Amino acid sequence: MSAEAATGEAWEDITPDAARRLVVAAVQAFAERGYHATTTRDIAGRAGMSPAALYIHYKTKEELLYQISRVGHLRSLAMLGEARDGEGGAADRLASAVRAFVRWHAEHHTTGRVVQYELGALAPDHYAEIVVLRRQSEDAIRTIIADGVAAGDFDVPEVSGTTLAVLSLCIDVARWFNPAGRRTPDEVGALYADLVLRMVGAGRR
Amino acid sequence: MSAEAATGEAWEDITPDAARRLVVAAVQAFAERGYHATTTRDIAGRAGMSPAALYIHYKTKEELLYQISRVGHLRSLAMLGEARDGEGGAADRLASAVRAFVRWHAEHHTTGRVVQYELGALAPDHYAEIVVLRRQSEDAIRTIIADGVAAGDFDVPEVSGTTLAVLSLCIDVARWFNPAGRRTPDEVGALYADLVLRMVGAGRR
């Protein structure tokens, strides 16, 4: 699989082409060696560019990490917000959110690992911005669960702890998912949607 | 908090004292900078020792990672095996396993992250040995769930996928747990035990 295929189509909106190639190379390098062990020279080399050419697009290694983190978090927020605002009852919307979020973390597991494990390497202002996006994603799931409780469809021990557990279960797919394994992203998404509906007590009443 | 307190009492069995101090220093360094960005000189420095003194105990950086991974995985296996072989029905044993496994990942979240995220940096023979321990841990949970299904106490869509989800939920506590946060390790353990019993359909029948 090419480096680009392995990190998926998450970067299609990044232009010009050279900037996108640098992001793909950075994700691969950070995933393999960790952020701190990667140099901008490594990234430029992987993208088939010179360090000077990298510098035209990204002034620092941290700017690349920030771009990766920002795109990843915006995608997460978009899909969870879409599920929250979708048609149907809370159970349908929660299942949609889990299926989409799991599929993303399975298909983009390399990006997902970088995004989740290297948060501490972001500059303080960038970190603060990402934390806001994370809270908004959390709010989307919390809203669906609270809607279900209010409608009498769900019965949960604690809305906020359950929200945390649902997000955690989906995010951790990026850690263990193996494209050569026995389950496709869609299959994991379907299994997890079922397990999450059980967690919130959907259909118990 | 001292470096030693932060990584907890997981290393009490490692002797002599100098070897234990090196393990604690390695966990901290790997967690902060990643395995590949850490040198044996960094680790020796954090432990207040010379590189030559480190070499008496560990010939390579990878040997330190292997020691950390081995101790962490043996602890996990011991606690999950104890829960599997414990008194009571499958629901009690599954709840015990989840409470213990969650508490460990919360209390030792720094070690947990190193153990989980740096698996790929182990030498092939060490990696193979760790994979065996991971399969045995997985088997402990799978056995409890299968026991519950056989006894008619649990109703699960798929034993093996549910086992994976239960382990994943517990392991990911190491990623998000914050000792300054609103929940204690015991509180997360209790919440998660409840959520997992819902996942397996305990008490539905």
UniProtKB/TrEMBL annotation, chains A, B:
Recall the GO molecular function terms of this protein's record. DNA-binding transcription factor activity; transcription cis-regulatory region binding
Which InterPro entries does this entry report, sorted A to Z? Homeodomain-like_sf (IPR009057), HTH-type_TetR-like_transc_reg (IPR050109), HTH_TetR (IPR001647), KstR2_TetR_C (IPR041490), Tet_transcr_reg_TetR-rel_C_sf (IPR036271)
Q: Which UniProt keywords apply?
A: DNA-binding
PROSITE patterns, sorted: HTH_TETR_2 (PS50977)
State the superkingdom.
Bacteria
List the Gene3D superfamilies. Answer: Tetracycline Repressor, domain 2
Taking every annotated instance into account, which residue ranges of this chain make up the domain HTH tetR-type?
Answer: 16-76
Segments of the chain annotated as binding DNA: 39-58
What name is this protein filed under?
Answer: Transcriptional regulator, TetR family
Q: Which organism is this protein's natural source? A: Actinacidiphila bryophytorum
